[in-house]
Amino acid sequence: MRVVGDVHGDLTAFEHAVATDRFIIQLGDLVDHGPDSAGTLRLMLDLIDDGRGLFILGNHDRKLGRALEGRRLRRDPPLEETLHQLSGPVQAGLRERAYEAIAEAPAWIVQDDLIFVHGGFHTDMLIEAPPPALGSMTPLLSRALFGETTGRMQPDGYPERRLRWIDHIPEGHVVYCGHDRRSTDGRPWIRDGRNGGRAIFTDLGAGKGGHLAWIDLDV
Fold first, then answer.
1. Which residues contact 157 (CB under 8 A, 6 or more apart)?
2. If you write DSSP's letter for every residue of the chain in order, what string do you get?
3. What is the distance, to the nearest Å, from the Cα of residue 68 to the centroid of all Cα atoms in its chain?
4. Does residue 173 have a pLDDT over 80?
5. CA 57 to CA 108: how far, in whole Å?
6. Per-residue model confidence as pLDDT tens digits over 113-172
7. CA distance 169 to 194
8. What is the rounded distance in angstroms from the CA atom of residue 138 to the CA atom of residue 127?
9. Does the pLDDT at position 74 exceed 90?
10. Transmembrane region positions (predicted)?
């Protein structure tokens, strides 16, 4: 198995990441910001069709899915660019296929003592199935997509996040997540919690001037 962090439209990096015989679990945010969100989606869909991979629902993926189904929401330049890339005859059928894949994407996956989620963990994820990707926002889905927020905004305009959820990861369990770009040394950022669990943050800024991280697991 190969766990791949946030791609954000960096198709070239994603092509390198998936050049393996390992099964791909991509941790969400396939689209927006980078140069080729359409190509990234197409490659992910090919992996799904070939039974070689899947992706976890990210907040950018969900926003794209809701835009594709005609929901009224705040449009931002990265989303507008992704929608533009998905338009036109060259991308015939891609919008529909992308929408269907996003609608079916799980917000989290639990495999034995491994948890795969985009934003942040909650203990209820160990006993509850993920809700519909494009349905109503629930507290658990919000945690999965955005992590744990304080309700305050940072100077950069993004919500302030806290990491208390890491202390609730059960002993021996590992959460692989993206969303939070915490690393300062170009490697996945690892933090151990008080209960003996571990969180590994894989977002290294692909599509935003950083690079793409992936981790191979022998499971």
1. none
2. -EEE---TT-HHHHHHHT-SSSPEEE-S--SSSSS-HHHHHHHHHHHHHTTSEEE---HHHHHHHHHHTT------HHHHHHHHHT-SGGGTTHHHHHHHHHHH--SEEEETTEEEESS---GGGGTSPPPPTTS---HHHHHHHH-EEEEEEPTTSSEEEE-GGGGGSPTT-EEEE-S----SSSS-EEEE-TTS-EEEE---BTTTTSB--EEE---
3. 18
4. yes
5. 8
6. 999 999 999 999 999 999 999 999 999 999 999 998 777 776 766 667 789 999 999 999
7. 8
8. 16
9. no
10. none
Return d(Cα 157, Cα 52) in angstroms, integer: 37
Q: How many residues does the chain have?
A: 219
Place of tokens 């969303």: 179
Contacts of 134 (CB under 8 A, 6+ apart): 62, 65, 66, 69, 102, 103
Q: What span, in angstroms and rounded, lies between the C-alpha atoms of 204 and 212?
A: 6
Q: Report residue 185 as tokens.
A: 């040394």
Token pair 């926002």 in the structure block, residue: 137
- Would you give the distance in Å from CA 112 to the centre of its chain? 20
Q: Which of 218, 174, 201 is nearest to 22 (CA)?
A: 218
* C-alpha–C-alpha distance, residues 130 and 35, integer Å: 30
State phi, psi for 31 to the nearest 5 degrees: -115, 170
